[in-house]
Design brief:
476 residues, alpha+beta, Jelly Rolls, eleven-stranded antiparallel beta sheet, seven-stranded antiparallel beta sheet, 26 strands, 18% helix, globular
Length: 476
């Protein structure tokens, strides 16, 4: 006698139906992710295979890849997908994965074996900063609120189209600026009441001391884009003292009338709110626009500096230009270096004794390892538009890991640029001490090391010799 359920179906019929439903369920496509393929007992498709992470038979981000030297890998340039494998350790990723972020930060996905401890985050991208959009321009900032380790300096990236004005204003912090592209006109008055007008282009600097009122206007066909640096990490561009905000919102019309000795109706049509960034009229030449009143006087101060017109210090692997109070006298609180690092070259191992380093990457791809003492070290990767922090006295290097030059600014809240070179320090130390410290049980290699460093040559951006590169490649 065959069992039937309340609906009249036999056990055999139910079994056949169940098998059919099972086959249907198995036919449902698996969600396209490594985790779902593995949970379903399926092998990974080729696109998730480590063979796509060439070079090498297993790729640099696969279980079998060995790298005793912790060499840099340009994940973007080689179109690789970084995964957390290192010298036989680690495993695959099953959950959600931000591929683009991982490619920009391969040394966070797979840190060098030398990284250790818990240094705080020292990297930020302007791409993650909020943009304030105004008439003909925009602005975004990176301060201690965005990057908690940026305690000494804050930064603003600003764009002004042709003729667009950053309104007359001042602030308690000093302002240092680098023109990233285009042309800009700056105006200011100094502490003695002298006026200054200057036109700047790509690679030029300006500096306004605390409280100095000034304005900015885009020139030429495309206006300008620039980087502003303020000597306080908690600065905010939104907290500046703005001319229209003071007069319109916070001063009675009767007081304005008395101050300028004009009838109140003259001020009947002042702007309704602060202007901040707005489209202005096309400016004439400096000679056409300079003030000519009876008591007008020209400033004796020079608020600008042509940084890229400086003769660079040419090194084996790039170029360095330094602007501080020695060659830009008015810049008392900010010093900076413009550094170019050629492919394969290294901004040598060094540290800064007088200030945190605030870095801005203009071009190229780089990795930086920061040694924080107490057994702590951490590696970060940087691309154009990124900001990096190196706290004072922490050892570090900047390595070009891409196929194009790295162009960067090193900025400091200091009147002079100072650094200590590890290479130079070794050569300036007695040979016996150096060998005892590093090669006490290896005199042969100690001699090789000493012969290399004894010149005490300071090479800010160093390019390895062909012999060194060949030796490193053979070892791998």
């Amino acid at each position: 006698m065959q069992f039937r359920n309340s609906c009249g179906f036999s056990a055999t019929q139910l079994l056949v139906s169940g098998l059919a439903l099972s086959r249907t369920a198995l036919a449902v496509p698996i969600e396209d992710s490594p985790r779902q393929y593995l949970l379903a007992g399926k092998g990974l498709p080729d696109k998730y295979s480590s063979k796509n992470n060439a070079p090498g038979p297993n790729g640099p981000y696969s279980p079998g890849y060995k790298d005793p030297l912790d060499k840099a890998i340009d994940a973007i340039g080689k179109d690789l997908d970084p995964l957390p494998y290192r010298n036989g350790l680690g495993t695959s990723v099953l959950g959600p994965w931000n591929r683009d972020r991982s490619r920009q930060n391969p040394d966070l996905v797979r840190p060098p074996s030398t990284d250790h401890g818990s240094l705080p985050n020292l990297r930020w991208s302007f791409a993650d900063s909020h943009i304030r959009i105004e008439e003909g321009g925009w602005t975004r900032e990176t301060t201690a609120r965005e990057l908690g380790t940026s305690v000494e300096l804050a930064s603003v990236n600003m764009r002004l189209d042709s003729g667009v004005i950053r309104e007359l204003h001042w602030h308690k912090e000093a302002e240092w600026a680098y023109v990233l592209d285009g042309e800009v006109r700056v105006t200011a008055i100094d502490y003695e009441g002298g006026n200054f007008i200057g036109d700047l282009k790509k690679g030029d600097l300006w500096y306004f001391p605390s409280g100095v009122p000034h304005s900015l206007q885009g020139l030429g066909e495309n206006g300008t884009e620039f980087l502003l640096i303020f000597d306080d990490g908690n600065f905010s561009e939104d907290s500046t003292f703005i001319l229209s905000d003071w007069l319109v919102a916070h001063t009675p019309k009767s007081v304005i009338s008395k101050n300028f000795d004009l009838a109140p109706e003259v001020f009947a049509h002042l702007p309704e709110k602060e202007k901040y960034i707005f489209q202005g009229s096309k400016p004439g030449s400096i000679d056409e626009e300079k003030p000519t009143g009876k008591n007008v006087k020209k400033s004796k101060q020079n608020f600008v500096h042509r940084m890229l017109e400086q003769e660079p210090e040419v090194t084996s692997g790039g170029e360095v230009r330094i602007a501080d109070s020695k060659n830009f006298p008015i810049s008392k609180t900010v010093a900076a270096a413009h550094v170019t690092i050629q492919p394969g070259a290294l901004r040598e191992m060094h540290w800064h004794p007088n200030a945190d380093e605030w870095s801005f990457f203009i071009g190229g791809r780089a990795r930086v390892t920061i040694f924080g003492s107490s057994g702590a070290a951490r590696t970060f990767d940087y691309v154009a538009g990124d900001v990096g922090i190196v706290p004072r006295n922490m050892g570090h290097f900047v390595e070009n890991i891409g196929d194009e030059p790295v162009e960067m600014l090193e900025v400091f809240r200091a009147d002079e640029f100072r650094d200590f070179s590890l290479f130079q320090w070794m050569g300036e130390t007695p040979k016996r001490l150096v060998v005892d410290h590093l090669f006490q049980n290896d005199p042969e290699n100690g001699e090789k090391f000493w012969n290399r460093v004894k010149s005490a040559e300071k090479d800010d951006v160093t390019l390895p010799s062909d012999e060194q590169v060949k030796s490193e490649t053979q070892e791998l």
